[in-house]
Structures are given as C-alpha cells and as structure tokens.
Design a protein that fits this description.
The chain is 30% helix and 25% strand. With 385 residues, it is of the alpha+beta class. The longest helix is centred in the first third of the chain and has 14 residues. It is globular, with a radius of gyration of 21 Å.
C-alpha cells in the first residue's frame, strides 16, 4: 500500500490530495515563503487525527499541522505531509464565560456564534484565521495593548501529541502548546474565555509632523490610565488608507475622552483593519513583527521613513510592523540592523523557519518539550530549532 493509500484508508479518498495545484497552495502560507509538500490530508475527527499520527510514527513521516495558512512562515512545509485541520470545525458549546470549539473553527464563525458575547483577540486576518492557528502562534489582535495575546484567553487546549496521546492541557501546561507553532502536537479543540460585549469606548486620531513630537505624546499617553490602545500609522500607511500623509496615532480611551463620533470611530478602525490588504495591493507583502525598546523607536522609525518602508502597529506595546516589497533588497539589510536596536523578531507571527530569531532559552525549551511530547520529531521539522 502506498503512503497516499494508507492515508486514504484513514480519512477517505476525498480528504487526501496529491494534485499539483493543492501542493503548490499548501507549500506556502501568507509569508509567501516557498516550501514543498507531496501530500495534503484533511482529518475530520480526533480519531482520524490520532490514526494519522500513529501512521506517521510507524513510517517516520514528517507532519506539518495547518490551520488557514494566514501566518507568516508557521505553515511552510519542507517535504512534510500537511495535516489541515479545517474540517475539525464544530462549535461544541457556548456558555456564559466560555466557548468550546474545535481547532478548525474560523474566528469569524466563532464571532457569529457567540452573539452578544465578545472574544477579545481579533487579528487582521480575522475573516480567515482559525482558532487552532491562533493558539499555535499565540496571536495578538488589533487591540493588543488592552487585551494581550491569545494565551490570556485560552482556558484549556486538547492536543494529540507525537506519541499518539490525546491530552487536555490547562494552567502552566498551556505554555507547552500556546505559541509553540505546532511543534508539540496537533491542536484539536480548545476552551476559550469570552466576555460580554466591549464597554463603550471612544477614540481620537492624533497626527504628528515629527517623530520627536510623536515620541513625546507616546510617553504621555502610556501614562494615562484611561488609554486602552495606541495604534501607530506612519505617513505612508496613513496615505494608503485615505488619511493625511502624516504620522498618526489611533488612541482608544475608556469612557468619553476621545473626540471622534461613534460612526467616525468605526470608519477609522475599519480603515486600519484593511491596511494589510491595501499594502499587499502595492506589493508590500513581507511584514516583520518587532518588539523594540521605547527609546529605540524614533531612530528605527527614522530609518524606515528614509527608505520609504511602510510601518504600523500597536506602538503602545512597543510593537511595530515594517512591511517590505517582496523583492526588496532592504529586507535582509534591515534584519541585519534589528539587533543593534534591541529589537525582537517574531512577536506577532511567530518564528516559523526563521530559527536565527529564536532565543537560546526558547530553543532549549522547545528541545525539552519535543522530547516529551514528540519523541520521534514528527511535527514541523525545521521550525524553531
């Protein structure tokens, strides 16, 4: 029996593909990095996931877990069999405080299902991304300053690990899965914390002509207890989405301190959420995700402006996203400068195969966790370590 036939015996003929088109699509993700896969498998139950893993154990077959592929390098295979969990898409239960969902549930479907409730992590890819992918990458949303990361909103995760064990993880053990980019197991379901709808907030749109003035205002806003989010747009990003070509902050306040009317505020957030698409239309497709010391921000942003590299992000956390053209020679030049600015790469999209961005401490932890959860190193070979 061939490898393809073995997987078909588990998940059915229609849930295995070797077609050239599928292999091309699944050899990359939103990062546009190019990998290679020869087979894609779509399990639709936890039992099927378990059988897929046991088959891989017997044959020492590398597996690449995948959600919607909206990440930046997290789902780029290197001759792995891609295991797409999008058919594990059942919403299992909604209660007052929690939503129990399978890993392949799309965030937009969860948003609809919880009705009057609210899930706080809403990335730019919210129309496509899946819960499993968000957990694997420890996603952050547009309002990350207020709500933090995915790790803050996961109560429990169920995985099938590389040893074939179906495990429910909670508490400190969540760190063995959340943000581990699919290296310790295939996420099959999760219990998420949900909230009542957001309290009424207000926003202001602040503009600046200089980085010095912007930095002074940033320090003031970070010390204002009413401020919930500070989103940065450089002059290039501002102009792309229809604002004046200046430096801007979108500042969200608890209460009524903001100056924009409710309808205006909705339009501003809608424009901000549409920014990655608009940048892509102009071939700015390679986004880096950086955490910088606040004192380094003005000099770093000055260099980006000098070379016409668009940049935006939740600057209230010290996080910014420079976005390069796909064929730009500046990508590697800027990446060579990150260290001297004290920048950490991988804070939004994860590290994927950018192993040089993984700290020695995290690499050591990954090795230890792989030994425990994935003793044959089936999952995501070449990622993180």
């Amino acid at each position: 029996m061939t490898l393809s036939e073995s997987f078909r015996a588990i998940v059915g003929d229609v849930n295995v593909s070797e077609s050239e088109i599928d292999r091309m699509v699944y050899s990359s993700d939103a990062s546009r990095q190019k990998g290679n896969t020869h087979l894609i498998v779509w399990p639709s139950s936890v039992e099927q996931v378990h059988k897929v893993i046991m088959l891989a154990r017997r044959g020492n077959i590398a597996l690449m877990p995948r959600g919607a592929g909206t990440g930046m390098g997290n789902a780029v295979p290197e001759n792995d069999v891609v295991v797409d969990v999008s058919k594990l898409n059942n919403i299992l239960n909604i209660s007052e405080q929690f939503a129990d969902v399978e890993a392949g549930v799309a965030l937009q479907d969860l948003n609809k299902a919880i009705g009057s409730k609210f899930f706080p992590v809403q990335p730019e890819s919210k129309k496509a991304c899946t819960i499993g992918g968000m957990i694997a990458s420890n996603a952050i949303g547009v309002k990350a300053m207020e709500f933090g990361r995915m790790a803050n909103w996961v109560e429990e995760v169920t995985i099938v690990d590389g040893n074939g064990m179906c495990l429910k993880l909670k508490g400190d053990a969540l760190k063995h899965v959340v943000g581990m980019e699919g290296t310790t197991g295939i996420i099959v379901s999760a219990k998420l914390k949900i909230l009542d709808r957001e309290d009424q907030k207000s926003i202001s749109m602040l503009s600046f002509n200089t980085l010095t003035a912007m930095q002074e205002k940033l320090e003031e806003l970070r010390n204002n207890p009413a401020v919930r989010n500070i989103e940065f747009l450089d002059d290039l990003c501002s102009e792309i989405i229809g604002f004046a070509p200046k430096l801007h902050f979108i500042v969200e306040y608890e209460g009524s301190e903001g100056t924009l009317k409710e309808a205006e505020a909705r339009e501003v957030w809608a424009a901000r959420e549409n920014l990655p698409f608009m940048l892509g239309q102009k071939r700015h497709l390679v986004a880096d995700d950086l955490l910088l010391p606040f004192e380094s921000l003005p000099k770093f942003l000055h260099l980006l402006r000098k070379d016409n590299v668009p940049c935006y992000g939740p600057i209230g956390l010290g996080i910014v996203y420079p976005v390069f053209r796909e064929d730009s020679s500046m990508i590697e030049r800027f990446r060579g400068l990150y260290k001297q600015f004290g920048a950490k790469l991988g804070v939004k999209y994860g590290h994927g195969r950018r192993k040089h961005t993984v700290s020695d401490e995290k690499a050591k932890r990954v090795i230890e966790l792989k030994a425990h959860y994935d003793s044959k190193n089936l999952f995501s070979r070449g990622k993180l370590i």
